[in-house]
Each structure stands twice: as structure tokens, then as C-alpha cells.
Amino acid sequence: MTAMPLFAEPLDKITFVKVSSPEQKAVIKTPDGKLQMVGVGNIVGDGNKIIEISKDRVTLETRTGSGVETIIVTIHDGKQKVQTISKAAVKKQPLPNAAAQAGESK
Known about the structure:
CATH topology: SH3 type barrels
Structural class: mainly beta
CATH class: Mainly Beta
CATH architecture: Roll
Order of helices and strands: EEEEEEEEH
Helix content: under 10%
Number of helices: 1
Strand order of the largest sheet: 4-5-6-7-8
Strand content: over 45%
Radius of gyration: 20 Å
Shape: elongated
Number of domains: 1
Low-confidence stretches: none
């Protein structure tokens, strides 16, 4: 079952107001001023999935054409900082043919 996005606003338009790591919940403020509680597994913004909530930090993941991006939102003294880490898609190399290798070693 695929999680449905709570709303489709860009992440830079969302403000994380409060984070509670024991409950794995965060309170966000949407661009229209509404407060909403979110948790691990929820999709917020443009397809960003919350994968971890810890003290003063929410970690999200999103898939892009070039791989996976991890987005870390930190909250310190009421200010929000967003950091994006891109992970390039890894191309799988074919495994060597075991039979061919066995023939070479004879």
C-alpha cells in the first residue's frame, strides 16, 4: 500500500514547528497557516517521505531521476535549516560468468 501525500506543497513552503522523538511525531505549519501532525512514513511536500524523527531533526527521502535524495530538516532555537544530500543511482555490474572463470583456471 502506497502512502498518500498529506499535501503537495513544496518542502520549502512547510515549516516544522515542533519535533517529538519519543512519539516519532512532528508538527508542521502549512503555507495556509494550518498546523498538522505528521509521523514516520507520512509523505509531505512533493513526495518526501519521513523516514526518521529524532531530537531537533526530521529526515526525509525522495526519489529523483538521478537517485535518492535525503533531506535533513533541523530545528534549533525556533529556526529551520534544510540540508539535501543526493545519492546517485548505482548501476549494477553484471556478475562474472562462473563457468567462464572455472574454464580459465584449468
